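Reviewer 2 asked us to include a model.

Predict the structure of this chain.
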Amino acid sequence: MTSNARGALTALLAFGIFATHDVVVKTLGAHYSAFQIVFFSVLFGFPMAMLMLIRDVQPGTLRPVHPWWTLGRTAAAVTTGVCAFYAFSVLPLAQTYAILFSAPLLVTVFSIPILGEKVRLRRWTAVIIGLCGVMVVLRPGEAELGLGHLAALLAAISSSLASVIVRKIGREERSVVLLLYPMLAQFVVMGSALPFVYQPMPLPHLGLQALMAIMAFAAAALMIEAYRHGEAVIVAPMQYSQILWATFYGALFFAEFPDMNTFVGATVVVGSGLYIVLREGRVSATAPVLHTRSRFETGTFLRAGVLSRLRQRRRKGEAKRAPITPR
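Predicted model (structure tokens):
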């Protein structure tokens, strides 16, 4: 098996786990508020986050180098978490993914003012076509749009904004800061809302919350392995396999069957996203879409990119400490 094939298969497994994670979100969303689900997701994710943080060999403090950008990214991650979880709770899985898949398109838009990137006609065309696909899914004027649709759109916008900010400050900020601040913010914000929405959770539901944290951590670790073995231009498009999982899980567990508008719109959005990812993979090795090419960031689990940087720095630290064997 070639390295690219191994990377692609590993990514497919990772995104399959992420899709299963979202099935659990939807299942719990029938009983609990999104605020409560996010809170317990962060709570069960903290032990695994701490295990990673204590292995960070980079010296420094937890004070961000770019406090305002860090604050903006943290706010965007908090918004993404609660909005995405709410959308999964109230909308069909396939429809939610179709809207969230507009995030890579919006990354291209946000990269202009934040990163100073130049976007040429072909990429603009792909972005516009992809956003038209989102409108096909939403069907304004034909179908009633609810809070779930608005939440999914906000999640896509805030997720893309968080991704571009990471691209801007990621080389200078400590990985610990990038990882810890969104989780702490989710814990505080969702914890503040919890007294108003809390419903007692039986042990099986708490078990599902713990399972969500484990699946998120495992999927993020698999994404690191996928990019270690395969090229980004091969691995990145595997994220769109989640629409297949969503269709399968939706039919199996929730009796959801995508209508023609959802199918056509999702096809347009995925096609536009694939074009941008593949084209940028050929044109530029530093394109923001390829550097933010994993799961949309919710601040409830360990981000694959941050985990990757932690692992790289730990290996460099171990290499420096290794004794030199005399010849």
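The chain has one domain: 3-312. The mean pLDDT is 83. We have added this to the supplementary material.
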